[in-house]
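REQUEST FORM: STRUCTURE PREDICTION
Request ID: SP-0412
Submitted by: Lab K.M.
Chain count: 1
Length (residues): 260
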Amino acid sequence: MSVAERQGAIRSNHLFHFPLADGGWTDLPGGLGDPIVNISFGRGAGLGPPLAPGITNLQYVTNPCPSDGEYTLVSRTSGCHRNTWMTVNHDHTGDNSGYFMLINASFKPSDFYVQTISGLCGGTSYQFAAWLMNVGYLVLQIRPNVTFRIEKTDGTILQSFNTGDIAIGAIWRQYAFYFDTPPGVESVVIRMINNAQGGPGNDLALDDISFRAAGPLVTAAVAGYNTRNVSICDGAVSVLHLTSAIENNCYPSVVYQVAD
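STATUS: Completed
RESULT:
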């Protein structure tokens, strides 16, 4: 854990209050950085190219309406399987030329997307996120149900998350969760598991798989104070020692921000 400190002399013309949480501490959850990895499937006219070998156990087809156990990359879909699929006119960002993965899941539950992600930082918190849509139109169709798993390259599970049954509706939904890389681990495997049976339904669209560094937990305090508020009287000059304890992470830079 790293500790940063700042000292400042404050001359007040008013009664100042420095609100802190109970006990004189405030825990600041870190923000999210720019995507370190963003798998968007690209963009273009017509159908997109197949994924690299080993990423999916589904069969790539050039049919814009894949059958059970098949997938394709499209920028829109309409009228598939006798109009039992939703019309989707663009990827989740609204790009009419942006590809997304259109999936007609296999009959048996299985892994439908597996990829190794490298270039991460050990001992760091990350957010994993992906956008999904249930493209089935009929109420009685089988609803997609997906488990996301983050694993070490030896198969050890670091974190998992289940979407539950994904509701009907032409709505892109983002599913996200947080995980920590152990010290020294810079590569992980993302595994997406189809939990539902194939047949009528269990059809989905996948877009924008991303990893973002989640800023470390920052615990701040004013040295010598253990109250909810620190007050400075009008006209007084006070020297305050502001400290912050930052969880271990590989992005150690500290920036203080002062608001007038």
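NOTES: The two ends are 30 Å apart (CA to CA).
Reviewed by: T.R.
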